[in-house]
């Protein structure tokens, strides 16, 4: 190890890279981390944290309306975009400082530079104009938003730019069908922006339970979001201070802004991985084994750059497992099979385990329990928003295979439910759990009647 400048060199100071660097340093390794932008990565700087703050901001328009049913009189209200952006930036600065201090406390050297590989042990620091060597290298550079190659795409924004808009547009079109698209559609709509969402498929949120997908579409439309399925943009043109979007079917939509949330690509372009001998996948992801090791024995990768499960807690777990295994003498692998997930759509959703469709593909007999209802708060507020709960169960073993919920605080609920599903809880064990009343979550332990699929009779 004395032949190298560092025991471990981490490229990228996002959640996964920072966790790996800190834990490795705590085990006694000499560690450096290079970051070309800001410490904290996508989640802290331009992802989950600022997005959740924007989601909170967007809820107040509904909250003001709901208050009347509880006897409150709310006067004139006014929203100021610049105040929200400024306060968000202050919080991101605070978190950025915490990440830096934690690295410093662990003894990790932070290098403010883009880093690229020259070979399997040599890293070039562009801003500093020098090379350093390391026994092991960990790639944790995350992913970057994808933009299609269409005329006028330079006029579009992504979630990166959405956090820093100078002015809040009066109209916006959000393109995409994943959780980032539905979350931002809800954000803009809640802040008073005339919002349309386009998705090229028949129904958005592919990969999630079909009941959740269908109900979310209904609830978003109730809130005034114009959902257009089987729709995509062919070109974008700027005319007279507005954007003219020509759709693939020839229709033209006029708007003030268009935001693409059509997926993210592993951020490996120009990193030098190929010349170091690292195998990349079809999307440019670093191909790794169950210990996050690449095709080159001393080079590892964690987080979104591996395109396994692109979620911040997963990246953190992968980074920690890497450090425990390589520097802590432990044998730690990350189980990607059961991952509780929250989608901060409006209404919010939470999910863990298999969807109904996935369960029916893998198991001979599946029982489904589900219910939809108006939450207690909505009885006085007058809101027609529905809450939804669903359990997917293996009929033979009684094991709960999946839980899918929609409604307020679904993210908080699914975290606790995720523990039970991870431990292999059965439907009987859910049933024997005493309900917390009155809550929406109590439905998860009081569902009794199995859902029966409707019988479709052939026409005479």
Q: Short summary of the structure?
A:
The chain is α/β, with parallel strands linked by helices and 460 residues long. The chain is 31% helix and 23% strand.
What descriptive keywords fit this protein?
single chain, 460 residues, FAD/NAD(P)-binding domain, Enolase-like, domain 1, five-stranded antiparallel beta sheet
Please, could you describe this protein's structure?
There is one protein chain. Helix 3 (48-67) crosses helix 4 and helix 3 packs across helix 6. The longest helix is centred in the N-terminal third of the chain and has 26 residues, at 81-106. Strand 4 (115-117) and strand 5 form a beta hairpin. The protein folds into three domains: 6-145 and 265-327, FAD/NAD(P)-binding domain; 153-261, FAD/NAD(P)-binding domain (3-Layer(bba) Sandwich); 341-445, Enolase-like, domain 1 (2-Layer Sandwich). The protein has twelve helices and 21 strands. The strands form five sheets. Strands 1, 2, 3, 4, 5, 6 and 16 form a seven-stranded mixed sheet that branches. A five-stranded antiparallel sheet has the order 17-18-21-20-19, sandwiched between helices. Strands 10-9-8-14 form a four-stranded parallel sheet. The model has no long low-confidence stretch (mean pLDDT 95). It is 31% helix and 23% strand. The protein is of the alpha/beta class and 460 residues long.
């Amino acid at each position: 190890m004395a032949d190298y400048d560092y025991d471990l060199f981490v490229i990228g100071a996002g959640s996964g890279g920072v966790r790996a660097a800190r834990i490795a340093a705590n085990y006694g390794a000499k560690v450096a981390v290079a970051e070309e932008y800001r410490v904290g990565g996508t989640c802290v700087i331009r992802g989950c944290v600022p997005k959740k703050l924007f989601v909170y901001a967007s809820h107040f328009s509904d909250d003001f309306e709901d208050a009347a049913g509880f006897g409150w009189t709310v006067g004139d209200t006014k929203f100021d975009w610049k105040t929200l952006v400024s306060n968000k930036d202050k919080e991101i600065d605070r978190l950025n400082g915490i990440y830096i201090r934690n690295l410093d406390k662990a003894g990790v050297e932070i290098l403010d530079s883009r880093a690229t590989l020259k070979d399997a042990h040599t890293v070039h620091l562009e801003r500093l104009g020098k090379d350093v060597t390391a026994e092991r290298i960990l790639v944790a550079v995350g992913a970057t938003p994808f933009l299609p190659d269409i005329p006028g795409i330079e006029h579009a924004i992504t979630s990166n730019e959405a956090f820093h808009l100078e002015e809040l547009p009066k109209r916006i079109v959000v393109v995409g069908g994943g959780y980032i698209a539905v979350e931002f559609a809800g954000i803009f709509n809640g802040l008073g922006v005339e919002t349309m969402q386009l998705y090229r498929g028949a129904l958005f949120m592919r990969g999630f339970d079909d009941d959740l997908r269908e109900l979310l579409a209904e609830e978003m439309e109730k809130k005034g979001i114009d959902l257009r399925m089987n729709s995509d943009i062919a070109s974008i043109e700027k005319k007279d201070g507005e954007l003219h979007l020509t759709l693939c079917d020839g229709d033209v939509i006029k708007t003030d802004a268009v935001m693409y949330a059509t997926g993210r690509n592993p951020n490996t372009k120009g990193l030098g991985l190929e010349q170091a001998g690292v195998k990349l996948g079809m999307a440019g992801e670093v191909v790794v084994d169950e210990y996050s090791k690449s095709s080159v024995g001393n080079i590892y990768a964690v987080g979104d750059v591996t395109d396994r499960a692109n979620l911040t807690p997963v990246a953190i777990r992968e980074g920690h497992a890497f450090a425990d295994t390589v520097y802590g003498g432990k044998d730690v692998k990350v189980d990607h099979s059961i991952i509780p997930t929250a989608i901060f759509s409006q209404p919010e959703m939470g999910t863990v385990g298999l969807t109904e469709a996935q369960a029916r593909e893998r198991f001979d007999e599946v029982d489904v329990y589900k219910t939809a209802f108006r939450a207690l708060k909505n009885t006085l507020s007058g809101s027609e928003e529905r809450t939804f709960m669903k359990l997917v169960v293996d009929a033979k073993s009684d094991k709960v295979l999946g839980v899918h919920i929609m409604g307020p605080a679904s993210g908080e609920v699914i975290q606790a439910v995720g523990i039970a599903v991870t431990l292999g809880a059965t439907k009987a064990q859910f049933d024997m759990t005493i309900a917390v009343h009155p809550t929406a979550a109590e439905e998860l332990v009081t569902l009794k009647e199995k859902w029966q699929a409707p019988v479709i009779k052939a026409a005479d």
